[in-house]
Amino acid sequence: DTGVSQNPRHKITKRGQNVTFRCDPISEHNRLYWYRQTLGQGPEFLTYFQNEAQLEKSRLLSDRFSAERPKGSFSTLEIQRTEQGDSAMYLCASSPPGDRDTQYFGPGTRLTVL
Amino acid sequence: SQKIEQNSEALNIQEGKTATLTCNYTNYSPAYLQWYRQDPGRGPVFLLLIRENEKEKRKERLKVTFDTTLKQSLFHITASQPADSATYLCALTNYGNNRLAFGKGNQVVVIP
After folding, report:
1. Which of A41, A91, A102 sits opposite B104 (nearest CB)?
2. Residues A107, B42: C-beta atoms closer than 8 Å
């Protein structure tokens, strides 16, 4: 399967713990996006990378959140000191250089904070 | 404030009929609009993109219209099948922007 992959698919953690998610975009896709989706809502934009540069961040991305994309390939999203309100599906998407308008989503990582 | 509105009520439709979903937006100047399908527990899957200078786009049994005067897009599934049952999301991108802004989605249930 050559689609966007995300790991882990599910994560259960206790409040106050740190968690890290990984996204592997489709090969050759230079744009990578992170979104968060809560139940009954559409995805909400968190941040965007072009190659290794983080070019855009949403106000939703508080200082407890950090995202990286070293070497412009895979990306990680870390949440420090998790809160119950962080419980959501975290989605990653990528776009190729020749078609920046279309985003291809991964299966998501479902985070539950107890 | 910016809003993207989709009907919150599920659309129940008989197999073979045409399902029509509506997406209305306010305070956006979208360069283009997209429709995605999402199944429970899965990420959205891209279906169609329509640009602001296009009135209509088709792909197999899917049709999208885009009226920038009414600030509205209609999404049609013709000859609907039970396998079309899913949530359909409308998403906008403003000029000069890279982020997608999504509506809440509209569930479609196709009854055999």
Report:
1. A41
2. yes
